[in-house]
């Protein structure tokens, strides 16, 4: 028999945890299902990453976030969210991936059956807080399947004394370029546009601009990699094609949410390129009654509109609506 809960939360990141804390405050039983470790997306961030936000803007559930620096690092954030989960005895199943969601009727009430890689559950309401870090944008070029190509970057030491090509121009790419260069890598950036991205952290941009200007980090603008080979890459530049020696390719061109997962549950997406899911701004309930969205997933392909600090309020709206429905029943 399926294990039954009033609320199942899909995603154990900061916003999923915030939803759990709100449910606990409202006295509603819940379960979080997380496909990886606690705060999986944050765990997969680069080891030395520094947040844009100050620590107080990353707080959830009224729990203070004390940081050594005005802008906390990844390790501090992981410690904070782990402490929040532990102190509040958050009910969470880790390394359990949701593979399918279906609807069924029970006593004239619609419920959801949730299938995972480990079992089955039943819920009256679902909260989807899966973020956007699941699916990297692919280059779709020959050689992208080679083991030397990485779409996620973690630790710079791994690339010491290697020839590293970094594809991209936003924060992930810039951090990788600077960190691997400082560990002794021979770094080349390949940027599709005419300059480093405008969203790059303001305290980092002068650093990368100066390293490129002095030639410490080579950069090809208005350029793109067209082929990856075992020991080299082919780069299309305004001056023609170049063949560069290469050991590793860090393709850090961004990530996208798992929108097909939403569609499979019946959630409608806007027809434009943003593909924004349909939901109420007041309650965050989607066009599928009983399914709610929280966090970055609400923005569809516009993954730069919502962050932890402006998504925390989603939890309050969602749980308030669920609680009202439970009282009415």
Strand-helix topology:
Blueprint: E1 3-10, H1 14-25, E2 30-33, H2 40-43, H3 74-87, E3 92-93, E4 98-106, E5 109-116, E6 120-128, E7 135-136, E8 149-150, E9 163-167, H4 171-182, E10 186-190, H5 205-213, E11 218-220, E12 224-228, E13 232-237, E14 240-245, E15 248-251, E16 255-256, H6 259-264, E17 291-293, H7 312-328
Parallel strand pairs: 1-2, 1-6, 2-3, 6-17, 8-15, 9-10, 9-15, 10-11
Antiparallel strand pairs: 4-5, 5-6, 7-16, 12-13, 13-14
Helix pairs in contact: 1-7
What structural category characterises the helix and strand content? Answer: alpha/beta
Please tally the β strands and state the result. 17
Structural domain count: 2
What is the subunit organization of this protein?
A: single chain
Average residue-wise pLDDT:
94
First and last CA, distance: 24 Å
Q: Classify the helix fraction into a percent range.
A: 10-25%
Shape: elongated
Unreliable sequence segments: none
Number of helices: 7
In N-to-C order, the SSE pattern is EHEHHEEEEEEEHEHEEEEEEHEH
CATH architecture of the largest domain: 3-Layer(bba) Sandwich
CATH T-level fold name of the largest domain: FAD/NAD(P)-binding domain
Strand content: 25-35%
CATH superfamily of the largest domain: FAD/NAD(P)-binding domain
Nearest-angstrom radius of gyration? 22 Å
Largest sheet: 7 strands, mixed
Give an overview of the whole structure.
The chain is an alpha/beta fold. It folds into two domains: 3-134 and 255-328, FAD/NAD(P)-binding domain; 138-251, FAD/NAD(P)-binding domain, CATH 3.50.50. It contains seven helices and 17 strands. Strands 1, 2, 3, 4, 5, 6 and 17 form a seven-stranded mixed sheet that branches. Helix 1 links the parallel strand 1 and strand 2 (30-33). Helix 1 runs parallel beside helix 7. The chain is elongated, with a radius of gyration of 22 Å. The model has no long low-confidence stretch (mean pLDDT 94).
